[in-house]
Design a protein that fits this description.
mainly alpha
Length: about 100
């Protein structure tokens, strides 16, 4: 939400300096999770899926990620994270515009 509202911290970087600083888990911190969720919305679940996930999690239990899969077209969170990390090199071209217009 902070990122989408242009209220993200100034040190948040979509593309860390090297692959080793990407993170090992999708929920490793606000910055990593925010960029991951943005990608998931664009590539897996579609526009609004993160908001839908948030709403469902108010009333449903995580239960091994079933609530996630229900919103993300049956794709589990770990599979999404793996795809996100694998797509990293393809996203290099976005670096040029990093920090422009998205509150980064």
């Amino acid at each position: 939400m902070r990122m989408k509202s242009a209220l993200s911290a100034p040190h948040w970087k979509k593309f860390p300096a090297n692959k080793d600083t990407r993170g090992d888990k999708w929920d490793e911190g606000y910055q990593k999770t925010a960029w991951f969720l943005e990608w998931v919305e664009q590539e897996i679940g579609g526009l609004g899926c993160v908001g839908e996930l948030n709403e469902r999690m108010r009333t449903q239990k995580w239960e091994g990620g079933k609530v996630w899969e229900g919103v993300m077209n049956g794709v589990g969170v770990e599979e999404c994270w793996s795809r996100y990390r694998n797509a990293w090199d393809a996203m290099k071209g976005e670096r040029k515009g990093e920090g422009e217009g998205k509150g980064t």
